[in-house]
Records
---
Amino acid sequence: MELSSNIRRIGVLTSGGDAPGMNAAIRAVVRTAIYNQIEVVGIMRGFSGLICKQFIGMQSHSVSKIISQGGTILKSSRCPEFKEEEVRAKAMENLKEACIDALVVIGGDGSFRGANLLWKKFGYPVVGIPGTIDNDIYGTDTTIGFDTAINTAVSAIDKLRDTADSHNIIFFVEVMGRDAGFIALNTAIATGAEATLIPEIHTDIEKLCSYMEGDRRKNKTSGIIIVSEGEDTGGAFKVSKKVKERLPDYEIRVTTLGHIQRGGSPSCNDRVLASLLGHGAVNALIEGRFGVMIGQLNNQIVYTSFDEACSLRNEINKKLYEISRILSL
């Protein structure tokens, strides 16, 4: 591949919430760049490190043995001050001073908004890699970290099922996902949950209670109800409280899985996806594709503008929701 004369050194950072597989993406960026005779600078702590000039040189050995590690070796942070024009101007000064010709940003939609501002306001070459367990980014079938997160949730819920069966308990299990129900829906199907509450579908408490009391539950000694944290009633604790008020004889417990879903060694799928997207990000810069997110649709690498990736949403599969309801009978 012909090397763009304008790209001699690139920076890479991780921003926002960490996701399993981010390290695999960093590794792919570093080694693909080195293969193409491009220097790599790691930027610590996301956009905050860009503002404070927390730069480290990266070589091939810098990313040895990190493909199996969760989290991010470059650390991450949220940087709301990056919305301010003078702060972005300072970041641009730092990039120029360090002779960094282009930037790879690994993160979610908030990270891409920051990246898009560099591209739109300064014409600075930036590409993005979707790293978030929420799987809500438009322009890719799956985001880095999603597969590991749902497998972590499935493992935890399988264990809860044992206790639920032993004590005739109904567990309301809250999973992450912000305002998207991908984690909840997939884990619900995989664990045989009795009900799934997600932000995309209005929660009808009366209907839920009727289902729990109905004939369908006569032969069931326990229950697992998966609740997405962005569900419109306010989450598992509020839902369980309302159900308990209507069904006082039921023994109910609430478990919030929380940040364990963001940690741990990434799955094979996340390692492969991260490697493909990291490789694709460097190739995009070499080819002069800027202001885009690298994604994978139907097993093909695709490029989606930051404008689209930030303004559109990955939609839940309503048919999958219907399947989860049918299989819970």
Note: Residues 146-167 form the longest helix (22 residues).
---
Amino acid sequence: MGSTFGQLFRITTFGESHGGGVGVVIEGCPPRIEISDSEIQRELDRRRPGQSKITTQRQEEDRCEILSGVFEGKTLGTPIGILVRNKDARPEDYAAMAKTFRPSHADFTYEAKYGIRNWQGGGRASARETIGRVAAGAVARKILQTLYPKIDIVAYVAQIHELKAKIDRSKVKFGDADTNIVRCPDKAAAKRMISLIERTRADGDSLGGIVECLVRNAPPGLGEPVFDKLEADLAKAMLSLPATKGFEIGSGFSATRMRGSEHNDAFEMRGGKIRTSSNYSGGVQGGISNGEEIYFRVGFKPTATIAREQKTVTASREQTKLAARGRHDPCVLPRAVPMVEAMTALVLCDHALRQRAINISQK
């Protein structure tokens, strides 16, 4: 099962939604990186369920336990094990799914692949698996800040359904999104988004949207030709997150409506460095970072599990109907923000270590 991500900085996540717990094993972390439980916990708190009225009401503290690889607040260079125990599991809420496939969920495909599945909360297909990613992302962010003190990773909700926020990318800062429960820096748009999510939940339905992510002050040179291009690894990272359906970097699909003379980013000297006058490339050219701001967008579908009755079939191939029980997010976007930041940190950390391995002048 593809539960491992990365080359030099490599993580393996484990656990199921309603099992004993979930977590991650991190390999390739350099020694003597300062990291504390509180830094990891801060990110897990941003991801955890039950944090607001517009998220799932499953009540989990998601307290992290560092099992190995850290001593006296510093990494040892050995594998780091992090565990979060499940406390508020209610497998009985999913009894109806034991023999019935939820529409647009992973129930049927997991059974088709393995001939067996954990139907309690979706097992590995649950967004609860992302706890390990977020914990590892906190470690990756500390490594990046050690290597590049000015690097900054910022994600936020840019759109919910058809409601689009007005956000000046040059001004948004880390923490701006956390000033409201929908994690959108545009306060006026945030109010409308929250209201829409509440109405949709009351109607037994769900919503999707777009998370935008920015990386400032990343050095030029990160990324590997040909198959490990930086944007290719970012795309894989983002599309591996639950409920994702789209990825675009820089000008994205809007580039298809431009001419080369419009889209090309002209080079110029600025502050003694080679820079570009525009940034339609989104900070990546030829699969390698060019030192400009990296920015991309991730599209999330509406949550598949909804309270409305839907047509489906059983494992014995009988037609039936199903209205999901349990506690589910009516919109995954607010909790997806720290997940996007974590996966971004994991990709950049891996490529930073790979770059330093081949370029001795950067050591």
Note: The chain has a mean pLDDT of 93.
---
Amino acid sequence: MAKIDAFFKLMHEQGASDLHLVAGQQPVIRIRGDMERVKFKVLDSDDLRSMLYEITPEEKIKSFEETGDVDFAYEIPGLARYRANFFMQKNGIAAVFREIPSIIMTPEQLGLPPVISKLAMLPRGLVLVTGPTGSGKSTTLASIIDKANQQRKDHIITIEDPIEFVHSSQNCIVNHREVGTHTRSFSAALRGALREDPDIIMVGEMRDLETIGLALEAAATGHLVFSTVHTTSAAKTVDRIIEVFPAHQQPQIRSTLADGIRAIIAQVLFKRIDIKARCVALEVCIATPAVRNLVRESKTYQIPSSMQTGKKYGMQLLDDAIMDLYNKGWISADEAYIKANEKARFRPLIKGPPADFTEV
């Protein structure tokens, strides 16, 4: 057993999401969003490097020593997988580990709306899960892919950096590809995927113009594509994708996106105040003909209004979902205000000045 495994077991027992190991400091774990120090000695840079290298593949060590950064995944059978990032800082080496549960929860267990399960059965198109870092996008995507794996008879390809949730083939054939290990880049893997007879392609993150363009092409050519973007609403997601491209390409991309988009889910995680747990608020935009027309005509500012009238399709605005959690007594008024899109709606709920004074 590797020395570092003891920290992972502690992390798992405490229900922590992240482990921080930094030279010159005590270990720290993140529990329900808060950082808490572990009662352990201050980590020496050389000792920490030795501990980390014990679990690091040789080619990743070489890459880290050349660049000062590296990502990979580490698994403890029967416990969990961990997404690892090593980086150099002033006092030496540092590492952050994110726990990825070995058991994939269903959309129902995660408390997601019923329409989320239906996305797994779409025949084609682009489905985007968006939100800030650490908002549970990978968990939501994994639950949808798992549903497809159980209920369809298709070929699923996942492209990630690194591989997070591992799906064993059930009714579907599932192939996992890791950027840097099995393929050079997201775009190279996507280009290859179009020749690998896939039905469903999951792209861990749409990071650059080429990857976004290939994902749109895959969706337009009859594949079902899932991916993530770091945005906070459906309308902003559309704008972000369009704005990546040069101005002269934007009208064509807008049309391609309008044809291919099927759903955008924007989510935010909250710390519950009634029990020791976290909960998620979701914005759900289903690409009805009306929504696609707004995308095509560059009227994304009208998408929220279209979503308000589309509740029968399973649509909901993020702020409505946040208000619902607040009314249940699950989340605090201050956190609801901080994470809402329309602050004015939540301003009367908070007693003092907001924590983020720039939002006044």
Note: The chain has two domains: 5-101, 114-349.
